[in-house]
Amino acid sequence: MRKVLTSLLIGLASLLAACGNLSQRASEGPAPLNPALATPPERQLVVGYRDEGNLEAVSRLLGARVIATLPELKAALLELPSGLAQAEAARRVLGLARYAEPNRFDRSPIPLPNPRTAAQGIAPQAAFNDPLLPQQWWIPKIGAPAAWDQGGVGRGVTIGIVDTDFDRSHPDLCDQPARTRCLPGFNAFTLQAFAPTAPFQGQQNRDTHGSGSAGMAAALSNNGQYVAGVAGGNGHPSTAARLRPLVIFGGQNGGYVGDFGVAQALVWAVDHGVDVLNNSWGGGGYSYLLKEAFDYALLHGVIVVASAGNDYRDAYHLPSGLPGLIAVAATNPYDEKTGFSTYGPWVDLSAPGEDVLTTFVNLGTGTWLFGGTSAAGPVVAGSAAVVLQVLRDNGLDPTPYQVLRILQQTADPVQGPSDVVAGMGAGRVNVGRAVQMARGLQSPSQLPPPGSQIGILVLNKGSDARPGPGGLVTTDLLPFVPFSNVTLVHQSGKQMYAQTSPAGPARFLESPPGQYQVLVGGPSQIFLGGSEDPVQGAVSVLPGGEALAVLRQQADPYEVTPGNPLARNDTPQRATDLGQLFGPLPPAFTLSAAFDSNNLAQFGLPQGGPDVDVYKLSLQPEQTLALRAASRL
C-alpha cells in the first residue's frame, strides 16, 4: 500500500529505514542541549546528502564541521567557517548536495487573535458530564456528541502535539496521578525523551500554546472535570486517544528550536508509532528539510494536520502548504471564515477557531478561550483520530488521504462570499457524520480511493537528459533546473506547491487522483539569477498510482559566480569553478544550458546577447582536455 516513486524521485524508499539513533541518545546521561543551540544561527547550514562519502565531500569543500546528522532523511547540520555566508555556501555545493538551506529559527506557534480565560455561555448539550461542556459551542457544531454516541472516541490512536509542551499535570490532559493516557514525549531542545510524569518542559506560565492544542484534540471527556475534547474518550483514560508531546517551542528563552530540531522530533515521533501529528505553528518560506521530514511521516501512513495561519488573507503558509498535509482554516459559530484566518486553494478543511473553550495550563481556572487556526487544526486532528479508530475497529488500514476524504465528504458548507468559501476547503468538519460514514465501511474496497504520488521533473531545455528504465540518462553535470517553483492545480481547484531541487523532481505525496495543470516558475534568483521562462504542462494520475511529468525550462544552471549570485560569469575573475561546484569530474561530461543574457531576470542587469560564460577546471599531469561545442535555437 505504501509504494514509493521511481528512482527519479530521489529514492524515497531509503527514507523508510528504521530509526535507532534518537531513542538511543534519549537514554544516555543528563540532558544535553541540542548542539544546534550552541552555534550561531547565521553559521548553520542544512544539507541533504547522498551518502556518507558525499557528506564528507560537502563538508570538506566548505571547510565546515558536521554538527548533527539525521540518517533517516539523509540530512546533516553543518557549522560554516566564520565569514562564509549561508547563501554563498549553498551555491558552492549546488552540484554536490541534494539541497542546502539555512537552519531557520524564525517560525512560531500561530499567534492567538484574542486569548481570554473566561468561559462563554452557550446552550446546554449532550449527556457527557464535563461541567463546562455546555459552554463549548464548538462541540455540537462539529457533531462530536453524535460521534461519541456511535463509539467514535479516539481509543487506541496516538496524537502527537508538535508545539510547546502541554501541561501533563492537568487532569483533563493526563489522568492523575498515573498519567496513563499520556505517552513519553520528545524534547527537541535536549534531544531526549521524557516520561509523562516528568516536569513541564519549558516554563508553565509562559509556554501555554500546546495545552490548548492538546485539549482541543483530545481533552479527557465524560470524566466529570473541566471540558471535553474531540477524541477524549468516554469516562476512562483507556478509551481516549493517547497524547504524545513533541516540544519544539519553549526551551530556556521560549523560542523555536529550528527546522533541524523539528525534523529530529518528527522522525522520532514517526518511529515511535504516532498516528496523527498536529502542527499549530509555522511561518513563511520553503524548506526542503521540513518537506522531507513530513514526507517521511506520510510514507509511514501518519496523518499530518497543520493550521493554515492567521494572516487574514489568501496566503501560502508553511508547513500547512506542503503537499499531503491537511491544511485547516478557522470558522466562527455561524460557519463563516473568521476575520483572522488564512485561506486559499491549498486549504483542505475548516473547523471552529473563534473563542473556543478548552484546556489551559493548570494554573488558576485551568481553561481558556483559545482561538485562531491553532485551535481549528487540532479539532481536525482529533476528528481524524476518531475516524481512524472507527475504521481500525472495522479491520481497515486507511491511508492519510482516505481519512481526509471521509472528513471532506461529510463536511458541512462554509458560509460567505464565494471567493472566500472557495478557499476554505471542502467545508467545516462534521465528525459525527464522518463517524457515521466510517462505521458503514466494512472492506478495503468500500474506502474512498487512495491518494496518488506525483513527481514533476524540470529539465533544462538545452540538456540531453531523458528518462530511462534505470533513471535519468544524461552526460550533463546538472541536467535539472533546481529551485523552480512547481504548482499543481487539480481539476477540483485544489492547489499544491513544491520546489525542484538540485537532485531532481518536486514531489507530491498523498495527492488527489485525477488531472492536473502544472505551472513552473522561477528558479530562485538567489541561486541562478531568475528565469523569464515560465512553463506549463499537464499530468494525470490514477487512485493509488504514480505519475512522473517531465517539463523543460529555459535556464542556465551553470551561471554561478563566487560571492555574487547576480553577477555573470563573463570574465576569468568571475569564472565558474566546475571542480569546486561538482567535485571530482567524470572523464566526459556536458554543459547544456540556455546560454542567453535575457535569461537573467534580475532588475538592473543588462539584457540582450551575446552571453559570455567562463569556466575553469583543474587537470591532472598528462591529462588532456578535448572540447566540442554545439548549439541549437
Description:
It is a single chain. By secondary structure, this protein is of the alpha/beta class. The chain has 3 domains: 73 residues, Alpha-Beta Plaits (2-Layer Sandwich); 327 residues, Rossmann fold (3-Layer(aba) Sandwich), CATH 3.40.50; 102 residues, Immunoglobulins (Immunoglobulin-like). The chain is 19% helix and 21% strand. It has 14 helices and 29 strands. The longest helix has 21 residues. Keywords: Hydrolase, Protease, Serine protease, Signal. GO terms for molecular function: serine-type endopeptidase activity. Pfam families: Fervidolysin_NPro-like, Peptidase_S8. Belongs to the peptidase S8 family.
Quick overview:
19% of the residues lie in helices and 21% in strands. It is of the alpha/beta class and 633 residues long. One of its GO terms (biological process) is proteolysis.
Note the topology.
Blueprint: H1 21-25, E1 44-48, H2 52-62, E2 65-70, E3 75-79, H3 86-92, E4 99-102, E5 108-109, H4 138-141, H5 144-149, E6 158-163, E7 185-187, E8 192-194, H6 209-218, E9 242-247, E10 249-250, E11 255-256, H7 259-271, E12 276-279, E13 281-282, H8 288-299, E14 303-307, E15 326-331, E16 349-352, E17 356-359, E18 367-370, H9 373-393, H10 400-409, H11 418-421, H12 431-439, E19 452-460, E20 466-468, E21 471-473, E22 485-490, E23 495-499, E24 506-511, E25 514-521, H13 525-528, E26 535-541, E27 546-553, E28 576-577, H14 578-582, E29 615-616
Helix pairs in contact: 6-9, 7-8, 9-10, 9-12
